[in-house]
Amino acid sequence: MSTLFTPAVVDQIKRHMNDDHTDDSRIIVRGLGGRPEAAEVVMSDADAEAIYFVADGEQVRVPWGETITERPQVRVAVVRLYQEACDKLGVAARGEGEH
Which residues form the DUF2470 domain (predicted)? Predict the structure, then answer.
């Protein structure tokens, strides 16, 4: 794992994802993380190459699809992963303004 962010930054990202976007995390894991039946999903880590989740007790790595070099890229990358996962699962994505 390549570390780009300090532990404090990763904690902020985790808190936001786990407090405000649990359904989005579940969709990402189900659609892109190879766990289509995942029920309990929490974000556990992030680095320059991927976002990590624990899904039903198992570690799941979902690559960003690009190397993240700046913190603002995380939001853009998460929204992209969410939209890709929705497309793959055949579910409607929430509107852009809702993220």
Answer: 12-81
- Is residue 18 included in any domain, yes or no? yes
Q: The domain containing residue 45 runs over which residues?
A: 7-94
Is residue 1 domain-resident?
Answer: no
CATH of the domain at 20: 3.20.180.10
How far apart, in whole angstroms, are the C-alpha atoms of residue 3 and residue 49? Answer: 9
Q: Show the 3-state SS of the chain.
A: CCCCCCHHHHHHHHHHHHHHCHHHHHHHHHHHCCCCCCCCEEEEEECCCEEEEEECCEEEEEECCCCCCCCHHHHHHHHHHHHHHHHHHCCCCCCHHHC
Give tens-digit pLDDT for 11-32: 999 999 999 999 999 999 999 9
pTM exceeds 0.85 for this model: yes
Q: Find tokens 């649990």 and name the residue.
A: 22
